[in-house]
Design goal:
heterodimer, A: about 220 residues, alpha/beta, seven-stranded mixed sheet, globular, B: alpha/beta, 8 strands
């Protein structure tokens, strides 16, 4: 993958580039026209407007964040105002409470249950209206997803489904158990950019980006 | 399998990118793998090195063992079915594991047909030695590809040969005028529409991991620098002197494959790697990569 990517104005949004669906987030952010940086070392965390912790395997990401001092540095930058967005595995990593195991980097008061739907055969797509994020219904992709089972004080529910919470936020943190980066919708990425204090020029981006196809991520890994 | 289900299956593989999938033969191994940061485990009765040593017919593992391993870890669980053995695949689907590997490591059940993977909801990963083989498996419904390498050898040379072959053929496709694609596809057995897609994307349309012979952090980083999206390590971990340490080191080297200092750090003091086998010392009938087509 390209070493680092920057375009647009303002401090970049970082995508944690250790394991998981990094290219997919990169693809969405670039479409929005915000500056982007791949984050692999503690130094990469300097002067970021926000950091996305992507989908992947949370146990793998936890191990990789533990070595080379990334975990402490994320915590430090968060205290200094860095905004965070965890998708799926990313949401597990930053939850205050993980059902049945110790928390990893507790930065938002939610309780989350890992792999709560079952095996890959229980992965699914759906659609829902999230008024705070976009006026139109947003496509949702759940892959071996966790469920948010409780939110604490200072955390607002963005999307409640039957018996679980699928998206929530605190002033500094956004969590989604689904994967907006695997859909044509840019709505959540735009919402996160705004949360980071950026004004992506693509405020006029259509709700569903027609030219996008589901192999769009491959452009970062062309030979 | 409908198109949406297929996309979800391709997307699960996308979540595994940059990761290491480890062969495990017990609950204990599976926990070591998960703790070390594996993104998935391949549950089986014998690692390829033992299958190779013991000979005989290698079949799908006992579902009871796979079920125990599934119970023990939260990361995705994969298991192997024999090439063409669609009933073993049906059993693994009924067991609700996360991914099936239609694998040449097991003794093929059908020398003419691979499994029609479009009839399943569960995702499949299949091996390939070249672009044609990869595209034929994708056409049959595979949601993920792995280059075959030569499993159970601890020798990375075949894995390198296979990814270089795939890459070379993709570059040829990308660079040729479109009117030459028909002949090139015919000569190499590419499904034509898939060849056009690869030509447009400049890579395989699904995630492609390396497999077969990876035994060290350096091997893993080599495969990543050659353009693989992640690695399978079979015998390389649990046939080595210190599996937990080696597993962590390979995870680290796979994530930081572009950074020689970190791969160096990962490579230090791991104890001995699995004993390797020179490919030319293997009788032709015992070469696994040539199973399937």
């Amino acid at each position: 993958m390209v070493a680092s990517v920057t375009q647009g104005a303002g401090n970049p949004i970082g995508v944690l580039d250790l394991q998981g669906d990094v290219a997919e987030h990169l693809d969405h952010l670039e479409r929005l026209g915000v500056a982007v940086r791949l984050v692999r070392t503690p130094q990469d965390l300097e002067h970021l407007a926000g950091l996305i912790i992507p989908g992947g395997e949370s146990t793998c990401l936890a191990r990789l964040l533990d070595i080379f001092g990334m975990k402490d540095r994320i915590s430090h930058e968060f205290q200094r105002g860095l905004k965070l967005w965890g998708t799926c595995a990313g949401a597990i990593l930053i939850a205050d409470t993980i059902v049945g195991e110790p928390s990893f980097l507790p930065l938002i008061d939610i309780e989350i249950k890992r792999n709560a739907f079952g095996s890959q055969l229980d992965s699914f797509i759906s659609e829902a209206s999230v008024p705070r994020v976009a006026p139109e219904p947003i496509p949702l992709t759940f892959i071996r997803a966790p469920k948010i089972t409780r939110v604490g004080r200072g955390v607002e529910i963005l999307l409640q489904r039957d018996g679980y919470i699928a998206a929530a936020e605190s002033p500094g943190v956004l969590v989604t158990v689904f994967h907006p980066e695997l859909t044509p919708s840019l709505a959540f990425h735009q919402y996160f950019a705004l949360k980071c204090g950026l004004t992506p020029f693509a405020a006029k981006v259509p709700p569903i980006d027609i030219p996008w196809d589901n192999r769009s991520w491959t452009r970062y890994t062309r030979l | 399998m409908d198109e949406k289900r297929y996309e979800l299956n391709v997307q699960l593989a996308q979540m595994l990118k940059g990761g290491v999938i480890m062969d495990v033969v017990s609950v204990e191994h599976a926990k070591i793998a998960e703790d070390a940061g594996a993104v998935a485990v391949m549950a089986l009765e014998r690692v390829p090195a033992d299958i190779r040593k013991e000979g005989g017919v290698a079949r799908m593992s006992d579902p009871a063992l796979i079920a125990q391993i599934k119970e023990a870890v939260s990361i995705p669980v994969m298991a192997k079915a024999r090439i063409g053995h669609f009933v073993e695949a049906q059993i693994l689907e009924a067991l609700k594991i996360d991914y099936i590997d239609e694998s040449e490591v097991l003794t093929p059940a059908d020398e003419e047909c691979h499994i029609d993977k479009t009839r399943f909801a569960i995702p499949f990963v299949c091996g390939a030695r070249n672009l044609g083989e990869a595209l034929r498996r994708i056409a049959e419904g595979a949601a993920m590809i792995r280059t075959k390498g030569e499993a159970g050898t601890g020798n990375v040379v075949e894995a390198v040969r296979h990814i270089r072959t795939v890459n070379r053929e993709i570059r040829q496709l990308v660079n040729m005028p479109v009117e030459e694609v028909t002949g090139f596809a015919k000569a190499n057995g590419f499904p034509y529409e898939r060849a056009l897609q690869v030509r447009k994307l400049g890579r395989l349309p699904v995630v492609n991991f390396a497999a077969g012979g990876i035994a060290t952090p350096a091997d893993a980083a080599l495969m990543m620098q050659l353009g693989c999206d992640g690695v399978f390590v079979g015998s390389g971990i649990f046939k080595s002197e210190d599996p937990a340490k080696r597993a962590r080191a390979i995870v680290k080297a796979t994530a930081y494959f572009k950074d020689p200092e970190k791969v160096l750090e990962a490579s230090m003091g791991l104890g001995s790697a699995m004993p390797g086998i020179e490919i030319s010392d293997i009788p032709e009938t015992q070469i696994l990569a040539t199973r399937g087509w």
